[in-house]
């Protein structure tokens, strides 16, 4: 009866604090490494008969009397370690050391626990238990996981702020009783550290999330004020709330101080630390005052087969068709507007008396998806990645008079009504080949029905056609980055639009936006500490760029000119940088490349 009353009293006490007690049994040894509750005010004074220890401190309050442990209470890999001897003595335990066995023995009220250094194993009344972490020695002081003591001696504890309050007289057990209502799941424990407590304006703040969960099942982390740097002086409170898969939560907060001393302005910080693919704020209007690089270009002889009109396809038919020989590039971007599923095909027909060979060089296919910007971006990413890996390279042989559907990924999945597909690809043929882009209902054989399909009129303002010299190469030997500079592209002023022919209507076609053109920008002398960035000038843009041997994604969804995507930054020496990019289907043009000195000095 006495044990039942004591357990009930302990449960009521801990419920008042809103936390779960440490279990008296070895199978419930959750580390109290971090607080379960956020406290923005000072924690209440410790009740009489309690012992309070503090994370990352040697401070200890024993029934309100302050003293110090031999070593600070520390957290290592999510486990809280304490000085065994000094804490055990404070809790009223007897501590002895046996030199022959190199064991430290802690005893209290009929319970005896034995510890050794460099092992997770310890003994409680002769029974071997396992600690959450390995005991270690800190300058002659044995450090052990706190829960090895709380479990061995049935010590309830409360977690509050950075304090751990132990109740040495809470259970009065013999070491064999179990909690009346064992809990099958412990709440998660939110905790993080910062690398410093005081920072200058613009100084990077490093956060280390050390939150834990007994099932390793934290499903959500909700941060407040976890900025990488701060730009106003004062006190900042950073908060973290974690949630486990059962919906249980825990919160922790820490205050840091921001001094009035400036390390980096907000603009310089963004230029220094925004990662590749990340965006930062710029003044879209001010960019027009940047010095423009002297843009001239040479070309590579790729014929562009642009099939994007009609973009919205309302019936089965041939979308575009032309005979090409040698290097060819394809830009395909269409939407199925039938009431049923459809498939898109690019068919190659050999009109010659001898066999023809097509070498697939690079390719990126995306969709079907109802989101044209997503399809355009992913196709471009995959295309540029294939230029690095060669993963799409293969050879296709076509007999005289034979028709073959190229690029199986293009039609592998049927497009539902409203879905869009996009493809960027490069091929080279050793003979003239007739290429036909078409759409048919999903269950129709394209080769069988192709002779009876109608030619579809573009109708819309979206262009289709064949365009020569569709790789533009800009190689610059001047030094870039000593001042703010820009390279405007796809604007039809600095960078003129292509003129070509619609091979089906035998009419002039203008490649508005130069979609499908591959730009190769070769900068032989980029100054040290230069930021290279992408700035959209025509609205929403979702694309990618190959920078040296890496593909960087570009995502601008707000349609503003007042942001830029980081593509690359040079280090402490001059570098050669090569960028490849092609205007993304489904996005808006024009755009500019920016070259900015990082330092404001």
Condensed summary:
This protein is mainly beta and 601 residues long. The longest helix is centred in the middle third of the chain and has 18 residues, at 372-389.
Shape: elongated
What's the end-to-end separation, in Å? 77 Å
Beta fraction of the residues?
Answer: over 45%
- Could you estimate the helical fraction of the residues in percent? 10-25%
| Structural Rg | 34 Å
- CATH class type of the largest domain: Alpha Beta
CATH architectural arrangement of the largest domain: 2-Layer Sandwich
Largest sheet: 9 strands, mixed
What number is the mean pLDDT? 88
Tell me the domain tally: 4
Poorly predicted regions are: 1-46, 171-184
- The structure class reads mainly beta
Number of strands: 42
User: CATH-wise, what's the superfamily of the largest domain?
Assistant: Copper amine oxidase-like, N-terminal domain
Number of discrete helical segments = 7
CATH topology of the largest domain: Copper Amine Oxidase, Chain A, domain 1
Region (Disordered): 166-190
Domain Copper amine oxidase-like N-terminal: 65-154
Keywords: Signal
InterPro entries: Cu_amine_oxidase-like_N (IPR012854), Ig-like_fold (IPR013783), Mao_N_sf (IPR036582), PKD_dom_sf (IPR035986)
Structure characterization notes:
- The structure is a single chain.
- With 601 residues, the protein is mostly beta strands.
- It folds into 4 domains: 2-166, Copper amine oxidase-like, N-terminal domain (Copper Amine Oxidase, Chain A, domain 1, 2-Layer Sandwich); 192-263, Immunoglobulins (Immunoglobulin-like, Sandwich); 279-295 and 470-597, Jelly Rolls (Sandwich), CATH 2.60.120; 302-462.
- The radius of gyration is 34 Å and the shape is elongated.
- It starts with a helix and ends with a strand.
- InterPro entries: Cu_amine_oxidase-like_N, Ig-like_fold, Mao_N_sf, PKD_dom_sf.
